[in-house]
């Protein structure tokens, strides 16, 4: 038995610097930038929407990808494989996966307990 | 004076039929499919997260795009142009725009009043 839910999304930017992308997306979405999380990530303050939204510096074409958060990454990855997704790459504690529709997304460890949180589903 | 906020996101699928994509994304995100909205859109039930999430059939490469909702589309598009975005195409009541980061997104009319809703920002 494990739990998961949509965590939020990452705005992947093929950009040498993140200042410009963060300034645009923070103002566009009306969310203040928070302190950088390492060299590649700047979180936006999406707490009012109970979402994780981050601007990420990447070296592939710019896109948006979803994150799914869970209390058991291996169990959740297995559940998603059974639905037709496939594992692409493990990065530290999370997995990059590819949906049958071709979209890439990540399965990440929930930063806080998912118990009773909006949208959390419990899987057998 | 107008208001806007992140509405949610659209999972664009370059797929002849939407059944497969909707089955995958509904199960992956733990959100039930709702009745189709025309031939190209199937909403997922993301009410618990106060988001609009839809699977859309498209004829360009699959991607994810954001929607920003507002009570004044023209004012919001103007605000985003001042931030560096540009108008690409008007479709019925909404505008497709391109961010300075290259991401495409839409500015749509809010389906319900934004007054007092989580994450709503009021712009001068």
Detailed description of the structure:
In chain A, a hairpin with a 2-residue loop joins β5 and β6. In chain A, strands 1, 2, 3, 4, 5, 6, 7 and 8 form an 8-stranded mixed β-sheet that branches. Chain A is 17% helix and 40% strand. Chain A is built from 2 helices and 8 strands; from the N terminus they run βαβββαββββ. The mean pLDDT of chain A is 97. The radius of gyration of chain A is 15 Å and the shape is globular. Chain A has 124 residues and is α+β, with helices and mostly antiparallel strands. The longest helix of chain A has 11 residues. At the A-B interface, β1, α1 and β4 of A face β1, α1 and β4 of B.
Helix run count of chain A: 2
Structural class of the secondary structure composition of chain A?
alpha+beta
Radius of gyration based on Cα positions of chain A: 15 Å
The greatest interface between two protein chains, and residues involved on each side, is: A-B, 44 and 44 residues
Query: Main beta sheet of chain A, described?
Result: 8 strands, mixed
The protein's oligomeric status is: homodimer
List unreliable stretches of 5+ residues of chain A: none
pLDDT averaged residue by residue of chain A: 97
Count of beta strands of chain A: 8
What letter string, H or E per element, gives the SSE order of chain A?
Answer: EHEEEHEEEE
**Strand percentage of chain A, roughly?**
35-45%
Q: Roughly how much helix do the residues of chain A carry, as a percent range?
A: 10-25%
What is the 3D shape of chain A? globular
Distance linking N and C termini of chain A: 5 Å
């Amino acid at each position: 038995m494990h739990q998961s839910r949509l965590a939020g999304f990452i705005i992947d930017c093929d950009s040498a610097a993140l200042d410009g992308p963060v300034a645009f997306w923070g103002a566009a979405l009306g969310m203040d930038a928070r302190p950088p999380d390492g060299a590649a990530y700047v979180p936006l303050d999406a707490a009012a929407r109970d979402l994780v939204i981050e601007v990420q510096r990447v070296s592939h074409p710019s896109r948006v990808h979803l994150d799914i958060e869970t209390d058991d990454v291996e169990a959740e990855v297995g559940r998603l494989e059974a639905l037709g997704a496939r594992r692409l790459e493990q990065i530290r504690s999370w997995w990059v996966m590819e949906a049958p529709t071709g979209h890439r997304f990540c399965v990440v460890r929930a930063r806080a307990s998912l118990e009773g949180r909006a949208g959390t589903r419990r899987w057998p």
